[in-house]
Amino acid sequence: MSVLCAYGVGTDARDAPHSLQFACKNTNFPSKTTIFAPHFNANGKKNMYEQQTLLDVHTHTVASGHAYSSLQEMVHAAAEKRLQILGITEHGPAVEGTCPLLYFRNNHVVPRRIEGVRLLMGCEMNILDTQGTLDMDESYMRFLDLRIAGIHGQCWTGGTREENTRGMIAAISNPYVHMISHPGDGTAELLFEPIVLAAKEHHTLLEINNHSLAPIRHKASARPNNLEILRLCKRYEVPVILGSDAHISYQIADYSRITPLLAETDFPDQLVMNHQPEAFLEYLSL
Q1: Which of 68, 112, 154, 270 has the most CB atoms in a 10 Å sphere around its CB?
Q2: What is the pLDDT of residues 158-172, one digit of tens each?
Q3: Are 22 and 141 in contact (CB under 8 A)?
Q4: Rounded CA gap, 196 and 202, in Å?
Q5: Which residue segments constitute the domains of the chain, with CATH numbers given?
Q6: Whole-prediction pTM
Q7: What is the 3-state secondary structure (H, E, C) of 188-214?
């Protein structure tokens, strides 16, 4: 398996020293038609998506400053929902009130399997500008299992739609970035076709975010934007990740606002990562 790393191309991410493995992403993933196989029930019919979800990798604890559950509470809720993988991804330092950088440096003290759930300790880093600058440098990224990047209005300096798109693509092409959070929430005006194509090229997952679709968020463009992203990903056969963006344990694996969009676009089950943990891990070389 070949991998793309900040340090060059190797034969396998596991061949690199441990301190360098974090920078690698799989660039030779097998055909999506064979890896993203839909699940079937005993009667040979495809299950509804809600019965298949086995991972949620975009969540926040009290450490993010504006969330309400502890890490242990989040893990317990994930175990009760029979998730196999849970991502804890606190906000990066540019978001007001979040945890200090020392929090991420100390991630090693957290067990990576609790109550039978595999835990990925990560960060939702901030894309700061149209150059794709992130608010965390590589010396701290190496302590993260999962690196998400997203645009948040309080720390984003944007430009034209074309300039914003170039900044997003710069983040997508960053070999340290595994996922882009809520690209369709409307915080920045974007051109989605080049973004989807860049995500396919660089094996960076685009998130369809449940939280940004909540009426209380007043993000009027979130629904049409996410529908456009789903249609483009379907056309170009690009996998997506659904994210709860949970800020309390009760929201874990809640994709209730997303499932109508999947139905409306007739989005292929095989392109949704959330019920395929092994495919998710392999796609991102985790």
Answers
A1: 270
A2: 999 999 999 999 999
A3: yes
A4: 10
A5: 1-30 (no CATH), 31-283 (3.20.20.140)
A6: 0.85
A7: CCCCHHHHHHHHHHHCCEEEEECHHHC
